[in-house]
């Protein structure tokens, strides 16, 4: 017996009439049989639907690929695409080879990108090689590792065509460093070597080696590392910058071992002594005395010995940065820099009278002065430690930056800087003013804002007054709401929160 239609079953279920047990069993059996016959048809239909959905997904992917052919990047000329690739290089300029880094990453994107990357010489003109090679078996012999690094350099730089090279070698053997110097002497423009305690030794080159392109040389001596430099430097005609970083700790009375460089032709010099406690000041000054052509100098030391240093004249120096982590700026007592225009002093104890003496002795016209994290001892016989400095240097200053030097700016300094009719005020040419974490808490609210306002208003002759253009202050400045109003007058106001280096 065939079961009744579904509608009839629904109607019977709503009535208070119970079907016969035999009829109910037969209906259940028939419905079960119909379900069993319907299931294969559903399975077949589902498989057809799955195949159609998969085909739709493939068509969608093909459609997106077809649309990508019209993307603007595919219409770029290879030369322009290669130019874009060069902007992906690291800011520091030295490439460390990595599978997912530039430029090796470009080789695995597409055939077009691979061809463009391999033909863009600038992508392959710099390389940093370290003692550790990824995926290098520990059992590999040292000579095989050296050969692998040599082959990698040759393959890499072969793609750079004839461009000048920038090379950085970290903790390689002196033999490898010497070979690299000889092999790329005529093309190397920037050369950097880092020497650790296990890789100290003698670096030599044949006397006929020509360094025709070398412009910058950087040497890093890690703690315990020593270098014997026996390289003929007579062909260093273009060498204009030396960066020397020494992390060794020297005993009192011992000077750092500076190599033989053409110091007299250098224009830029960076001397960094991170680990040298109580370094002899005389050794640094003697080295500076040979740098007659120096224009930019940066000296970073922990602490120095020496109270009677030798005088040093740097006739062409225009920019000087001194950092003394512990102690005073003793080195400043020996320097004479008549052409100095930019001076930056970081950390250390700064006696403002010594800075004034430095200015009088050098007779320079300073345009930029930056004091960062310096401590100036207060002398009760003087009104303020900074006032004498502003009087001696302020006539030509265009930029004054003082950061994280507690309570160095007091009411007296702000009054000196405030412009008023019939009054001589400090720093009349000031255009850039950065005061961060240096204003004394005793300064009453409104005094700082009044000083800035006077620098923006027009009193007296405009030919003798320069309007303030840029101001950096910290977020805790009480006059900050008033200062924000000055932005409508053309003042560039930047609020700094936290510790920054200017």
What does this structure look like?
Residues 459-463 have low confidence and may be disordered. The protein starts with 5 loop residues before the first helix and ends in a 6-residue tail after the last strand. It is extended. It contains twelve helices and 20 strands. It has 502 residues and is of the alpha/beta class. The strands form four sheets. A 14-stranded parallel sheet has the order 1-2-3-5-7-8-10-13-15-16-17-18-19-20. A two-stranded parallel sheet has the order 4-6. The chain has a two-stranded parallel sheet with strand order 9-11.
Record keyword descriptors for this entry.
single chain, extended, 30% helix, alpha/beta
Query: Percentage of helical residues?
Result: 25-40%
Strand count: 20
So what's the oligomer here? single chain
Q: How are the strands of the largest sheet arranged?
A: 1-2-3-5-7-8-10-13-15-16-17-18-19-20
Instruction: Indicate the structural class.
Output: alpha/beta
Short overview:
With about 500 residues, the chain is an alpha/beta fold. The protein is about 30% helix and about 20% strand.
Could you give the topology of this structure?
Elements: H1 6-14, H2 21-68, H3 78-86, H4 111-119, E1 126-130, H5 142-158, E2 165-170, H6 174-183, E3 188-195, E4 201-204, E5 216-221, E6 227-230, E7 241-246, E8 268-273, E9 279-280, H7 281-288, E10 296-301, E11 304-305, E12 312-313, E13 319-324, E14 335-336, E15 342-346, H8 352-362, E16 368-372, H9 387-393, E17 399-403, H10 411-417, E18 432-436, H11 447-456, E19 470-474, H12 480-485, E20 492-496
Parallel strand pairs: 1-2, 2-3, 3-5, 4-6, 5-7, 7-8, 8-10, 9-11, 10-13, 12-14, 13-15, 15-16, 16-17, 17-18, 18-19, 19-20
Helix pairs in contact: 3-4, 8-9
């Amino acid at each position: 017996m065939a079961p009744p239609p579904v509608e009839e079953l629904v109607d019977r279920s709503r009535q208070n009439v119970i079907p016969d047990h035999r009829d109910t069993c037969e209906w259940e059996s028939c419905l079960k049989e119909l379900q069993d016959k319907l299931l294969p048809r559903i399975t077949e239909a589902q498989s057809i639907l799955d195949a159609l959905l998969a085909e739709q997904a493939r068509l969608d992917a093909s459609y997106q690929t077809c649309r990508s052919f019209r993307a603007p990047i595919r219409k770029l000329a290879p030369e322009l695409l290669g130019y874009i690739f060069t902007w992906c290089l690291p800011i520091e300029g030295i490439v460390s080879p990595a599978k997912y880094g530039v430029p090796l990453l470009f080789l695995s994107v597409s055939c077009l990108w691979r061809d463009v990357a391999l033909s863009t010489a600038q992508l392959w003109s710099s390389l940093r090689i370290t003692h550790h090679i990824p995926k290098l078996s520990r059992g590999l012999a040292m000579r095989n590792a050296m050969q692998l690094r040599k082959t990698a350099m040759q393959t890499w730089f072969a793609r750079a065509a004839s461009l000048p090279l920038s090379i950085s070698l970290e903790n390689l053997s002196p033999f490898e460093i010497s070979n690299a110097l000889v092999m790329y002497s005529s093309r190397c423009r920037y050369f950097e070597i880092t020497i650790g305690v296990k890789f100290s030794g003698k670096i030599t080159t044949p006397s006929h080696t020509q360094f025709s392109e070398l412009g910058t040389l950087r040497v890093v001596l890690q703690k315990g590392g020593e270098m014997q430099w026996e390289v003929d430097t007579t062909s260093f005609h273009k060498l204009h910058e030396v960066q020397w970083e020494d992390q060794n700790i020297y005993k009192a009375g011992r000077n750092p071992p500076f190599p033989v460089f053409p110091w007299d032709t250098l224009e830029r010099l960076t001397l960094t002594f991170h680990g040298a406690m109580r370094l002899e000041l005389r050794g640094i000054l003697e080295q500076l005395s040979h740098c007659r052509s120096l224009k930019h100098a940066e000296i970073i030391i922990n602490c120095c010995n020496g109270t009677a240093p030798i005088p040093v004249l740097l006739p062409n120096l225009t920019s000087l940065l001194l950092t003394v982590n512990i102690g005073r700026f003793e080195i400043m007592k020996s320097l004479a820099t008549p052409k100095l225009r930019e001076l930056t002093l970081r950390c250390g104890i700064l006696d403002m009278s010594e800075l004034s003496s430095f200015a009088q002795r050098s007779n320079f016209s300073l345009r930029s002065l930056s004091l960062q994290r310096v401590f100036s001892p207060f002398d009760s016989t003087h009104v303020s430690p900074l006032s004498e400095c502003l009087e001696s240097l302020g006539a030509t200053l265009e930029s004054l930056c003082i950061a994280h030097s507690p309570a160095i700016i007091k009411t007296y300094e702000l009054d000196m800087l405030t412009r008023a009719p019939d009054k001589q005020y400090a720093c009349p040419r000031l255009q850039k003013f950065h005061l961060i974490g240096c204003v004394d808490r005793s300064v009453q609210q409104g005094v700082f804002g009044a000083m800035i306002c006077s620098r923006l208003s027009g009193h007296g002759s405009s030919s003798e007054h320069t309007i303030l253009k840029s101001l950096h202050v910290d977020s805790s400045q009480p006059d900050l709401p008033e200062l924000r109003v000055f932005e409508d007058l053309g003042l560039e106001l930047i609020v700094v929160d936290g510790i920054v280096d200017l």
